[in-house]
Specification:
Oligomer: single chain
GO molecular function: glycosyltransferase activity
Largest sheet: 8 strands, mixed
CATH architecture: Alpha-Beta Complex
Enzyme class: transferase
EC number: 2.4.1.266
Shape: globular
Protein name: Glucosyl-3-phosphoglycerate synthase
Distance between the termini: 49 Å
Keywords: Glycosyltransferase, Transferase
Structural class: alpha/beta
Length: 406
């Protein structure tokens, strides 16, 4: 059974196993009568060929309260888009597949770039940002949830529990963040969260001193979870990175724009597993190596925006402090795994720590080389101000794609 500890920074909504999911779902259905709830699924076409997504769709088909499902489809050609339309047609809810590479959507992207408002690079952040813009333009949802399409252990209860804190009108929460134990196949997973983010936050505090922002991030049990829900009123002013720093970027925006009492984390699953990416030690543009760089950049940019001064000496000190902190944390995880009969490979974990330590320097160099680089995708409020017709035209582009490629 879960504990009931509150950390004092943000609210934690536990699953104390005292209420059935059916009861939660019925209550959500009653809220949805006046507060429509939508879901965003950022997806690569390759995920349609995996084992996880068919089960996710089977579980989503049981959800009675969803008003709309928006699927952002990346890395797909015309034939694959047609296939995706058929693939997602099993969903009984109103749903739309946004083909991000369609000629019409590329024209929308070109308009953004001419205004200097286009996302810096392709990635999950850009996909989610586009889907959120579509939902804002629809103007008919009060709550939006987001989760990945590679969750092997997906159950509808994950969505129910994640949505509940922001859908309940009697709660003050504007953002809820899912958390869970990353345990599967007899071992502890989640290396980037465990062996990069946690010790990096410790090292940053030791290196640059106390920051409320660092304490805020440390309050989250799984800050890199891709499962979150928000009230749509905060979406137009949301700034997020276009790369794989999305989760940290959203939390950074929550810290800046929302009162701590408006943010919660919620336990959504007893066990959780998804597609595992390669460490990619030889190629920093792929896998966990790229992810670690993007996450570090997101943190550095946020701290710099709040007045922290970074230079090469700071990053060298940070690397050394991180490395020692990570090895100390590794001892804790090893002992935790051993006590629970789980396996943890110390050699591969230390290899990851060494890679992440190097990538702290890489991210720092990238930050210093391009200090004027815009760290976030522009807000949808700014896009609307620069081009009042763009969001309406995006709705038309998606509708015309659906008609032409039926």
């Amino acid at each position: 059974m879960a504990d009931f500890h509150q950390n004092g920074n943000i609210a934690t909504i536990h699953n104390l196993r005292t209420r059935s999911d059916e009861d939660i779902s019925r209550e959500l259905q009653s809220y949805a009568a006046t507060r429509k709830i939508s879901l965003v699924l950022p997806s690569l076409f390759s995920e349609l060929e995996g084992d996880a997504l068919p089960n996710i769709l089977e579980e989503l088909a049981k959800v009675p309260y969803l008003h709309r499902i928006v699927i952002g489809l990346d890395q797909a050609n015309e034939e694959q888009y047609r296939h995706a339309r058929k693939f997602f047609s099993v969903l009984p809810q109103t749903h739309v597949v946004i083909w991000n590479s369609s000629p019409r959507m590329l024209e929308i992207q070109d308009r953004l770039e001419k205004l200097g408002l286009g996302p810096i690079e392709n990635g999950k952040g850009k996909n989610v940002w586009g889907c959120l813009g579509f939902l804002i333009a629809c103007a008919d949802s009060s709550v939006v949830a987001i989760h990945d399409c590679d969750i092997v252990t997906y159950e509808k209860e994950m969505l129910d529990r994640m949505v509940y804190p922001v859908a309940n009108p009697n709660f003050p929460y504007q953002l809820s963040k899912g958390y869970y134990a990353r345990v599967g196949d007899g071992k502890i997973n989640g290396r980037v969260s465990r062996m990069l983010v946690s010790p990096l936050l410790i090292a940053l505090k030791r290196t640059i001193g106390d920051r409320d922002y660092l304490d805020f991030l440390r309050a989250f049990r799984y800050p890199l979870s891709g499962e979150m829900a928000m009230r749509t009123g905060i979406l137009p002013d949301l700034r997020i990175p276009s790369d794989w720093g999305l989760e940290i970027g959203v939390l950074s925006e929550a810290w800046r724009n929302l009162a701590p009492k408006s943010v919660c984390q919620v336990e959504i699953a007893d066990h959780y597993d998804h597609k595992h990416q390669d460490l990619s030690a030889e190629d920093k543009s792929r896998g966990l190596s790229r992810m670690s760089i993007d996450i570090c950049k997101a943190m550095f940019r946020k701290l710099a925006a709040d007045g922290t001064v970074f230079n090469e000496e700071v990053f060298r000190t940070l690397k050394a402090t991180y490395y020692r902190s990570a090895l100390d944390v590794l001892d804790c995880y090893y002992n935790d795994a051993k006590a629970n009969g789980l396996y943890l490979d110390r050699h591969s974990e230390e290899n990851a720590v060494e890679l992440f330590a190097d990538n702290i320097i890489t991210a720092g160099q990238m930050f210093l080389e391009k200090p004027s680089e815009t760290p976030f995708i522009p807000t949808w409020n700014r896009v609307h101000s620069a081009d009042p017709d763009l969001m309406t035209d995006m709705l038309k582009a998606v509708a015309e794609d659906l008609k032409e490629y039926a």
